[in-house]
Design a protein that fits this description.
The chain is of the alpha/beta class. It has 2 domains: 132 residues, Aspartate Aminotransferase, domain 1 (Alpha-Beta Complex), CATH 3.90.1150.10; 222 residues, Type I PLP-dependent aspartate aminotransferase-like (Major domain) (Aspartate Aminotransferase, domain 2). 41% of the residues lie in helices and 15% in strands. The protein has 13 helices and 13 strands. The strands form 3 sheets. An 8-stranded mixed sheet has the order 2-9-8-7-6-3-4-5, sandwiched between helices. A 3-stranded antiparallel sheet has the order 10-13-12. Strands 1-11 form a two-stranded parallel sheet. α5 crosses α9 and α11 packs parallel to α13. The longest helix has 24 residues. Bound molecules: pyridoxal-5'-phosphate (PLP). Pyridoxal-5'-phosphate binds next to α5. The site of pyridoxal-5'-phosphate has 13 residues, from α5.
């Protein structure tokens, strides 16, 4: 067999998906992979069924079916306060996963450098490899994942072409404050850097924290590429629908990148989700409240265990400090926990650039009964 590519040979099997398999093997509650164990709203399912009887079964316009772009533009203007022209500012993609890849490939050349916070969502380092760019990291400092602005300035000054900002953050649950975003905006403008935002958890934010759209800050609309998704907002991770929102000139180039990568997302599902996006704004407030209830159930159990964790401000993840157990590393601990406790986590080290064996990540995008079942089992971790 001829040689395969060197750059993709470094990819390892995702530890997150491996933990899902380990969970299935041991009959454990799977809190590893971050997806809901409940269905989307009934109106969305009904719209998807109705779509099957229409004639939306061939390729949609490559950058997105018009009704979806119109609905997205209205929603974006409502939440960001920015003008959004569905003809100029949007690309509908196969999830935020594709949106991020389109963003990175649209603004970087092979050999460029790209900035990331560590810990980070694991896809970003794969995106960098696929695009042929080198990541440069700035560390978010535990316990509250604070930004070290001296280090961040060094990263921006090092000549990066773009910086990826995940807000609200997977895996830390951090919601960046307006003041933090303003400082990032200053750096972006001073060093002429694109900011690629991953805002898939924009509507899963816990009071009193508030999501601020970086693109809405002065001077940032022209250099922010907002990537987001319908996966989390409507509990449809399997539908593969996301989007890029940004300045017209960047979007014009990004649409071609997207066209050559995937042509487009599933046409009938694009039409179906336009219905979801026309739901009243209450839908989003209600979503945040539902996730607050899930978080509170889950944290109530964690509080009884006595291990340190960071209280999530947004998204649906908790990083739990497992250092008191004295395991050699988080991978060993995760396997032990899945088998002995019956709850599967993700070893936290997959999210860090630097060696960091102290954490496991648990997700609470689950039905209340799943959270209670997991919580009861987790009580076995209780410390003296
Ligand atoms: C931060 C972050 N970005 C992107 C994604 C993927 O989103 P999508 O399903 O829209 O591809 C996830 C999924 O877990 C995520 O946590």
């Amino acid at each position: 067999m001829p040689a395969t590519s060197r750059r993709t040979s470094v990819f390892t099997e995702s530890l997150i998906r491996e933990m899902s398999r380990v969970a299935a093997r041991h009959g454990a509650v799977n809190l590893a992979q971050g997806f809901p164990d409940f269905n989307p709203p009934a109106a969305i399912l009904a719209a998807a069924k109705a779509e099957m009887d229409t004639d939306h079964h061939q390729y949609a316009i490559t950058w997105g079916a018009a009704p979806l772009r119109e609905a997205l533009a209205a929603k974006l203007t409502h939440f960001t306060g920015q003008p959004c022209d569905p003809e100029k500012h949007l690309i509908v993609t196969c999830g935020a996963t594709e949106a991020m890849m389109v963003a990175v490939m649209t603004v970087t050349d092979v050999g460029d450098h790209i900035g990331l916070f560590s810990p980070f969502y694991e896809n970003y380092s794969a995106d960098a490899i696929l695009a042929g760019v080198t990541p440069v990291f700035a560390t978010l400092r535990a316990p509250d994942y604070a930004i070290d602005f001296v280090e961040l300035r060094r990263v921006f000054a090092s000549g990066i072409k773009a910086f990826i900002l995940c807000n609200p953050s997977n895996p830390t649950g951090k919601v960046f404050t307006r003041a933090e975003l303003e400082q990032i905006a200053v750096l972006a403008q001073e060093f002429d850097v694109w900011i690629i935002t991953d805002e898939v958890y924009e509507h899963i934010v816990f009071a009193p924290h508030q999501h601020v759209y970086l693109s809405s800050l002065p001077g940032m609309a022209e250099r922010t590429i907002m990537c987001s998704s319908l996966s989390k907002t409507f509990a449809i991770t399997g539908w593969r629908l996301g989007y890029v929102f940004g300045a017209a000139a960047m979007v014009a180039q990004g649409r071609k990148v997207h066209d050559f990568l995937t042509v487009g997302a599933a046409a009938p599902l694009q039409h179906a989700i336009a219905t979801g996006l026309r739901m009243p704004p209450d839908y989003y407030a209600e979503l945040a409240l539902e996730y607050t209830a899930r978080r509170d159930i889950f944290l109530h159990y964690l509080d009884q265990i006595g291990l340190t964790y960071t209280r999530p401000q947004g998204a649906y993840f908790v990083m739990l400090d497992i250092s008191p157990f004295g395991y050699a590393n988080d991978i060993e601990f995760s396997h032990w926990m899945t088998k002995a406790i019956g709850v599967a986590p993700v070893p936290g080290s997959v999210f860090f650039h630097e060696p960091e064996p102290r954490y496991v990540r648990l997700n609470f995008a689950k039905r209340h009964e799943t959270l209670h079942a997991a919580g009861e089992r987790l009580l076995q971790l209780r410390r003296g």
